[in-house]
Amino acid sequence: MLSSGTYPIGTPGQAWGDAERATWLARQVRRRSYVDDVASAIDRLRDRFDVAPYGQLDYPPEQFELFAVRSRNWDHALPIVLVTGGVHGYETSGVHGALRFLERHAKDYAGRVNLLAAPCVSPWAYERIHRWNPLALDPNRSFREDSPAPESAALLRLVAPLRDNVLVHVDLHETTDSDESEFRPALAARDGVPFEPGEIPDGFYVVGDSENPQTEFQQALIAAVAKVTHIAPADAKGEIIGSTVVAPGVINYPLKRLGLCAGITNAPYTTTTEVYPDSPRATPDQCNAAQAAAVCAAIDFALARASR
């Protein structure tokens, strides 16, 4: 077992204080552009959607405008589909998979659902290719009342008026090799606990809600994505990332209790997608396509059930 002392910041067994967080922040380097990669792509959607800011992140000397994309002819008689990406900014296909869905597939659902998308919830982390925000907080453990993470708080405000009317919420994520090499060791060091090595699953999988598992729904996403890229197998314990596999490529978490993004509405159909971009069997384009396919499958399943 590795200890948190193997991480270059902090003292083993002691949670970080302000000095350690400052040291960590000073090590973060901007590696790509939110404006060039994401905001410009969102801007190109303005001829088909209503695009508007839903918040601003102030991380001096930087500021980031957060954008939501909505169906232009919003019809209160139609169900709402929420798509979120980039809650963890380093998970690239979460952002670009959401954009791909909007660019290529959203037209297929015009007049059938109201679409609301937040393609990049964490732009600072997108630029640094990181999991946390500058406060060393994980936005995807911070979706709760009085959230300490500005990214999470802004999305909660956006969704609050709609949370009881959402039919489907698909939150797009990745599981990467850096989870094991950087982010989980950093988490252990930050919290002053031992780091216990895990296993990165090779392939796509989904995380349902243990309080509302909807296994058939999750399996429909797996079946659709299997046509695009490979599905992660269970490990020798019958698990994926420490959770029991309840169907091929499907595990469950208590979404709301953990403060996860997929739990921010009362939608009957919710899922967190996970692709593995570091696999030798998957390309970045496949990862983006898998995310878009999952969104389409989620909407198709929910609409088919609603029409029964």
TrEMBL record:
Peptidase M14 domain location: 30-308
Organism: Dokdonella fugitiva
GO molecular function, one term: hydrolase activity, acting on ester bonds
CDD domains on file: M14_REP34-like
Family membership noted in the UniProt record: Belongs to the peptidase M14 family.
One Pfam short name: AstE_AspA_cat
Alphabetical keyword list: Hydrolase, Metal-binding, Zinc
Cofactors demanded by this protein: Zn(2+)
Entries under InterPro entries matching the protein: AstE_AspA_cat, Peptidase_M14
Name recorded for this polypeptide: Peptidase M14 domain-containing protein
GO biological process: proteolysis
